[in-house]
Amino acid sequence: MRTRLTGLAIAVALAAGAAPTVAQQSSSVFQVTAMRDGGPAANVQIDMQLLNQGKVAAGVTGAGGDLALALSLVNAGKPTRMQVVIYDCPNDQQLVVFVEAGAGAPENLNCKRRVAGWLWFGRARAVTIDVARGTMQVQGGQNFLGSTRGRLILGGGAAAVGVGLLANGGSDSNGSTNTTGNPGSTPSGGSGTPPPTETPFDPNGNYRVTNTVASDPGGHRFFVLMEDNTLLLVTITGSTVTITCPPGSKWTLLTGTFNPTTGQITAEGRGTAAGFNNVLFRLAASIVLSGSTRGAITGVLTVGPNGELNGGPPITYNIAGARQ
């Protein structure tokens, strides 16, 4: 089987059978097998959504189906909890995104999202994903998360629907483990014991976010120039939110509403973009208010939704980051 190494590619090993065993793989390589109803799935786009780097286009499965990722490229090789999200897109195409915990599953308005499961990237050595069935199997030493099917880390923007919980049933064996789980299983704690009460989280503060282009049909990205790290100052009073940025930022002042129960934000403001004045900036985002990833923020920023960018379509950015 031919294997390609790409600098920031997720390993998708397409084989007409089971995935390669752990013994057959290099200890520094993570390998994934993409299947479709049990058969090889070629031309599947593989992306990564990382907490500190944002979206990374990892690669596309070739005729042989093989891609490989050096484990050191994610979190310097340290075990990293990641969720595998399958996107069903037009023309029977699937996209697979490996989402680092806290980064937030990106929103794709043209595709429907499904969660195959969780894995520990850096402990696991191989994973088989059936993009049609929405299932996955992991090989290699790892702890895994159950109760994951249909539950996203965070939906892009206002589509946030929940945070997966770590199950106690994982193992560090070298066998194969199916991580799809049972949607009704009990979270960590066992015997129905509720988790300890958390200290209330204050969402006010500075959030370091990464802006990644999600859609740009009008070709505005080289003029808007918002693909960078941005510091957002979020000020919340009751159900009102104000978002400001340091001087020189490409963002503009945003005001709107905050839901203290769900953490959802809807805010707008007008400013200068691509040399045009009075351009509308519209943000739909969500802050995680509880759990291990609380303080994470994800969302979608739309710039020029009413044709303010030279009369053309808007540009949208996926926003991901966390409170400092």
Helix-strand blueprint:
Elements: E1 29-36, E2 39-40, E3 45-50, E4 54-60, E5 68-70, E6 80-89, E7 93-100, E8 112-121, E9 126-130, E10 135-139, E11 176-178, E12 205-215, H1 221-224, E13 229-237, E14 240-244, E15 254-258, E16 264-273, E17 276-287, E18 296-303, E19 315-323
Parallel strand pairs: 1-9, 3-7
Antiparallel strand pairs: 1-2, 1-5, 3-4, 6-7, 6-8, 9-10, 10-11, 12-13, 12-19, 13-14, 14-15, 15-16, 16-17, 17-18, 18-19
- Roughly what fraction of the amino acids lie in strands? 35-45%
Assembly context of the chains: single chain
Provide the spatial order of strands within the biggest beta sheet: 12-13-14-15-16-17-18-19
Helix content: under 10%
Morphology: globular
Number of strands: 19
What is the H-and-E element order? EEEEEEEEEEEEHEEEEEEE
Low-pLDDT runs of 5+ residues are 1-26, 142-151, 153-191
What is the CA-based Rg, rounded?
20 Å
Largest sheet: 8 strands, antiparallel, barrel
Number of helices: 1
Structural class: mainly beta
Head-to-tail CA distance between termini: 45 Å
Instruction: Please tell me the overall pLDDT.
Output: 74
